[in-house]
Structures are given as C-alpha cells and as structure tokens.
Amino acid sequence: MVGVVRIAALAAGGLLAGSLAACGGAASAGSSGPAQTITLYNGQHEQTTQALVAAFEKETGIRVTVRSDAEAVVTGQILQEGARSPADVIYTENSPPLEKLQEQHLLAPVSASTLASVPARFDSQANDWAGVSARVTVLVYNTHALTQAQLPASALDLASPKWKGKFGFAPSETDLQPVITSITRVHGRAAALAWLKGLKANAESNVYPDNETVMAKINSGQVQIALINNYYWYRLRLQLGAAAMHSAVAHLGAGDSGYVLDVSGAGVLASSQHKTAAQKFLAFLVSAQGQAIIAHSDSYEYPLRPGVAAAALLTPLSQLSPASNTVADLGDGLLPLRLLQQAQLG
Amino acid sequence: MQAMNGSPLATAVLPDASAFGSPAAGDGAQAADPVGRRPPWPLTGTAALVCTALLLPVAFLIWQASGVGWSLITRLLMRRVTLTLLTNTVELTLAVTTCAALIALGAAWCIERTNLPGRRLWRVLMLLPLAIPDFVTGYTWSSLSPAVHGLGGAVLVMTLGLFPLIYLPVAAALRRADSTLYEVARGLGTGRFTAFLRVVLPQIRPALLGGCLLVTLALLAEFGAFEILRFQTFTTEIFTEFTLGFNAPAASALSLLLVLLSLLALGAEHIVGRRGSGRTTAGGLASARVLRIRRYRLGWATVPVIGGFVALTGLSVGVPVSTVVFWRFQAPDTTLPPIPLAGAAWNTVTYAGSAAILATVAAFPVALLFVRHRGRLGTLFERIGYLSQGLPGLVLALALVFFAIHAAYPLYQTPELLVVTYAIMFFPLALVSLRASLVQAPPRLEETARSLGCRPAAALARVTLPLVAPGIAASAALVFLAAVVELTATLVLIPSGAHTLATAFWAYQQNSSYASASRYAIVIVAIAAVPGCLLQRWFDRGPGRGEVRGQS
Fold it and tell me: Domains in chain B, please, with CATH?
C-alpha cells in the first residue's frame, strides 16, 4: 500500500510539475520581450538542423523549437493538424512531402528574395517552398567484389539477372521515390514497374529497412552494389574512417534516368502565426552562412546557393550530369508508391 | 509459504472471472451477490464514458477510411503481397505465441512448483524483458548477427520480449492452483506429463489464454522491430501507405483490418476461455480455506534447468543490456546538442507515472462492472478495453492528434494529452490486473459494510479498495513500464522541444551516435526495472491485506 501511495504521489506531483513547467515555458517565451519563438517540424538530418538552428538563433535572437521525426510523420502530422498546426516551418529531406503539403494549400508563399538565393529549378514551381540542399543518386559498390569497369552505366541495368544476389536496396525509404518517378517519366510506367520487379528479384533477401543498413552491407561485402543517395557513403566514411572503407561511389552515365538530383527543402506553414520570423528562418537556410553550415556539416549534401562549395570530398555540383527533372516532375510520391505496391514491395 | 499467496497479476488475465471459482463469481455465489445484477448507473455511466474514450481511435479510423475510395483499398488488399503479409502475420503470431507460452509455462512451473535454487532472482529476471524497449532489442540483435532476420529472427526477438506477458499470469495462477488434484492423479498412476496436461493445464488455462491474447494483440500492432528485422507483417502495408504516400486515410482503412484481426482474437479467446471455465478447478480450491502447494524436487534436472534459465535471461536481458553497455564505451561521435539526461528522465518518470495512475483509475469502473455485475454490457465494455492494444502506436497517435486539434486544442502537444494517449494505449494492462484482484475481493465484505450502515461508495472505498491494492499496484506498474519504453506516439504528441529518455535515445541513434544514445537506454532499463522489482515484492508477500482469506 505504501508503495502504491508513493508511486501515486510521485506521479501526481510529476504531472503537476510537468504542466507547471510547460506553462512556465510558454510564459517565458511570450514575456521575454522581443525574443520570439518559432516551431520547426524537422524531417531532415537532425545534426545539421541543430547546427543551423544554433547559428540562426545567435544571428537573429529568434528562438527555434525543434520537433524531429521521420519526414513522413511530420508531414502526416501537419496534414492532420491542418489550419491549426502549431508548426511555423517544415524542413524535409525530399521534395515530395513539401509538394504534398503544397497541394493541400497548407504552405504560404516563400519570400521572393529567399527563392532568388538558389537557382529557380530547385524551388517549388508554385513558390510555396524553397530548395535548401540537394543529394544525388549514385552507385555504391564493394571494391573487393567489383571494379569500376564492371559497373552499369544505367540504373536500368541493375534489374538485369546479372546482378541477382548482388544487389541490395531499401524500397521503403523515401529516397527511392524520385528515382522511380524519373524512370517512369523517361521510360513509362510499364518499364518502371518491370525495373522494380527486376530489382526485387535481384535483391532476394537483401531488402533492408533503411539506406544506412544498405551502405553498411555494401561495405561489409554482403551486398555488392546498390543505388542510393551519395551522402550515405560519406557519412559511413566519417563514422568508420577512410581506412575502413571497402566500398566506393560511382556516378551513372550522364543524363541516365536513374541519375537523380533530389532536393531537400523547407516551407512556411500557411497557418503560422509567426510568418515574419519563419520567413527569416527560411532566408537563413539559403543564406551564405546557412549554406556554409550545410556544406561543412556531416550531412554531405550539396548546398544550392551559387558560390558556396560542397564538401571537398564530393564531386562538385557543377560536374554532375543528372537526368533533367524539375522538382514538380518528381511529384508528391504517389506514383512511385503505387508502382512499389504493384511490384509487391510494401 | 509465499507460494500460497495469489499475486496481483496472478489472476490477471483470466478472461472469465468464474474460472476462479471465487465466491464473488462462482455460480452459487453470484445468485447471492449482494451488489446485485443491475449495476448502479454511476458505475455503468463511468465505464461507458471510459469505453467511449477508448473507442475514439477506432472511430477515427472509420471516419478517415470513409474518405477513401473503396476501389483503392480493394485493389491494395487484393494483391498477392497482401496475402503474403497476412500469412506472415498469422504465422508469426502462432509461432511467437506458442514459443512464448511454452517458455512461460516451463519457467513458471520451475519457479513456482519446484525447488529451483534462486527463485527470487529468476522471478525478477523474468520480468525484465518488459523493461527493454523493442527498438533497443531490434537494433541489438540485427547489429549482433545478420542471421537474425526474417520469420526466424522475428520469432526469436518477439518471443524473448513478450513471454513475460504470459509468464506473469501463468505463474500467478500456478500459485493459486492447488497441488492436491495433481497428486491424486499421480497417485492413481497417471504419468507426470499426462497429469500436467489433464490436471494442471486446465487449472491455469484461463491465465494462459489471457496472456496469449495480450501477446497476440501486441504482435498485431508491432512494426518497428519487424522493420529492423526485415520481416514484413500486415503493418508494413499500413506504414508504406503512410510513409511513402502521406496517405493517412488509406492507412486508416487498412488499419481497420487489424481491428478485425484483434476482434477475431478477442472472440476466440472469449469462446475458448468460456468453454474451459466450467471444468476449471483452480479457483474452487484456491478460495478454499487452505491452499496446498507442493514443490517438487528437480534432482538431477537442477543443472539443465538452471542452464535453461541462464540461457533465457542471457538472451532476453543479457544480450540487449550488454550491447547497450558496450555502446557506452564507444567514442562519443556527435555534434547534436546534448539532451539533459536528468530532464529527460524526469519527463519519462512523470509522464509514465501519471499515465499509470490515469489508466488504473479509468480501468477500475470497467473492471468492477465486469467482475461484479457480469452481463452483456460489462462483457462488451471489457472486450472494448483490449482493442487499443492491437493498433500501431502511430495510428493511435494520429487519432489523438485529430481529436485534440478539433475538440481539445489547448491540450494539443501538452504532457496531459500524452498521458491520456499512454492511458488509452496501455489500458488493457491496467484492466487485466484490476480485474484479477477484484475477482479475489469478496463482495460479501462490502455487503457487510453496507449492512452496517456504510454507503455504497464508502463501502467500496473503505473495504474493496484496500482489498484490491495489489491489483492497483500491478496495474500501475505495468502501465508505467509500457509507457517508459513507448516511442512512436511520444514523438508525435510530446510538447515541442521536450524529450523523454526514449526520444533522446532515438535522436542520437538516428544519427548513428550509439555512445550518446546508450546513456539514455541504460537509464530507461534502470527506471523500468524499478516497478518490476516492486511488483515482485507484491508477489513475494505472504497472505496480505488484500487477499481472499476473508471468506475462510
């Protein structure tokens, strides 16, 4: 009985203290004069986001509350919240979630100067979100199993029986969607479906929940070749050290439909009560300072602002020759989802 | 003789109170039930209110699903892969439930009915797997060996994580199952195994079935661990729709199939439980004046049995805990701002503690109505109480987002709403614990109090509540345990900027910063082990205040 009382008292006290703390937090945010607080729903790599937020807070005095989860969850959450969303800014890894929110009219137009900071092809065509950084689809391969000469020039070749048992992928990752969309645009739906079925057959049991695992399997030799975003290789290298890398990155043939430049971006919520501060945050993301933070972070993504160089290890953005997709071409993710489902992948 | 005492959880999962044969629920006693068959309206009203809240997630699913074209849903469901996924789900459920039941039965028998050395230690260790979050277990196993994947891997990991849900009720039921029948059977020349099957098994069958029900529902809802283990169940289809299509309506429509599977499991357990209850004698003897429990000598088997326990706890507790400790000694490798450990721990303890209280308080009227008044309504409410356990955390969380946004906006992303969410998610754990102890509390005592002039409410508070204290403790402890390790719904509903230990672990683990992540996991296990030990102390007590001795 004493135990029960103790637990009860502890918990009841805790709830009270918790709500008091919550009230206190809200009060201080509201009452500390000019300091404003915006809420960021973050689906991007949290380490880089936190570095950006710290610099932004220092620069502007505006405080940012970060709420991180998978990009699909923060997006799904905003779709449920609708006009009453507490979020001011959303920042995602890929463009489809932003396109989805734009379709639902949940985003506010981005200020013109922010849009002008990066080439227009990286921004939403409806001007509702801004491109911040980019990642590119590459081949990664185990260097003990394969030489560069053996690599296919086109992503389509990965579906050939030649790669049976050697290929691995993570079809449930949102990163694959733009590739499927791009291949569909160039070769049509039937070809994209056949490609996915080929990949599924080749992967056998090498179907993984995420690309970090795929990358680790490539490096350990369990998988010989995969098609993933470039940064996974560089992040693993950072983690393990160059000496422990038994894999390498290779680019696909110029303009190949599977060679996709995919944009990560941010938008201001139409429902935001702090639009000025939220727009300032977006402007900071594409500012020279913000883009330099992205370039020097452990994200290994391409900053999009002209004049800001990517990490030295990466092939410079200007030397990439991806398929010609606009962000609108890459869509809201629905088409690749239906194709994945038709291919019995998920 | 500690073994003579029923435990709070003991009877926990009995689907049919009469199986206990306690005077409260036995046939003869029921006719004389002073509280009467017609429940007082405040009780029914409160229970109805609680059940309405519990049905919110299902209502949300139906509402969302109604906005989806049925052509899409049928097209998705008619695919070959759906059949595979459903087959996977059923195979996994059968395999895990069977394995977990066998392990639980063996462990419970050895601990409660033999002279196994170190029983107290084993009892605590049998509980600990509940305190290890599935995302820790999943990562541990998948990083330990690439061989742990697919159906085999999923069965291994889930069995090790879920067997305590069967062990607890079965061990408790065994403690209340009289040895006399078994000995008579043996005396009449029945073999040990046959005697166990024909005498002991029926005695503990309701507890076994109830535990299996909890395991089945937990498996239907699980997603994270299976994703890590590369095993796809029907939840994969739901998550694909949500993650790649941002399509909550379609995901909801698909989730209704999980509700259907849960209903099937609930119905099956109800029918099987009822059929067995008639010949169950566990309670009949248990409620008698003297319970005879005999421990059997293990003899030469002592060494292999201890070996089995070492292996079981090594795999279920040792492996994940030592992996987390190993991570601790890796070089710190993150630029993420530090998340204060004390703050996260405080949040975890207060949120989970409050949820434990709320779920227990809310489950009390439902359990009381079911145990004391039976009837269709009581049974219906009780079954509704289990539904939430069969739904994935993300689905539940989105339902709560929806209702809070539209009906309780000031509560959105407050600790209060998170606590309510936990209470809904883990209601079944509270319900089973309370129901069991209420069965043990004879209504005759309450009747006596009332005949002495006590008002019904006062009689309940002054007589019955103290009697069911162990059940209250068990309920609170189990809900606390489950809430401490919850991640998915927490990420969606926690106040912006706040962290629990689970979300802090997740943040670092997402950035491959295992050294930093491990600190939080270690504290999670340490905190979650506390109620496990408290519960154990209730188990260990001699006949206590709350026990049925009042009727002897």
Answer: 9-29+39-54+62-292+346-539 (1.10.3720.10)
Lowest mean pLDDT among A308-312, A339-343, B285-289: B285-289
Class of domain A35-134+263-315: alpha beta
Closest CA of chain B from A301, distance in Å: 15
A74 closest CA partner among B408, B397, B163, B361: B397
Q: Is B192 near chain A, with CB under 8 Å?
A: no
Q: CA of B248: how far to CAs of A88, B35, B141, B239, B447, in Å?
A: 22, 46, 31, 9, 51
Kindly report, as residue ranges, where domains of CATH 3.40.190.10 are found in chain A.
35-134+263-315, 135-260+332-342
Read off the pTM: 0.85
Question: What pLDDT does B6 receive?
Answer: 35
DSSP state of A90: E
pLDDT of residue A19: 43
Write out the CATH class of domain A135-260+332-342: alpha beta
For B42-59, the pLDDT digits (tens) are 889 999 999 999 999 999
Please name the member of A13, A72, A239 whose beta carbon is closest to the beta carbon of B246.
Answer: A72
Phi-psi group of B544: left, alpha or beta (phi > 0 → left; psi -120 to 50 → alpha; rest → beta): beta
- When CB atoms are compared, the residue of A7, A72, A208 closest to B243 is A72
Q: What is the pLDDT of residues B417-473, one digit of tens each?
A: 999 999 999 998 888 778 777 776 777 877 888 888 888 788 888 888 887 777 788
User: In 3D, which of A345, A74, A46, A343 has the Cα closest to residue A209?
Assistant: A345
Chain A residue with minimal CA distance to B535? A3
Q: Phi and psi dihedrals of B12, rounded to 5?
A: -40, -55
ipTM: 0.84
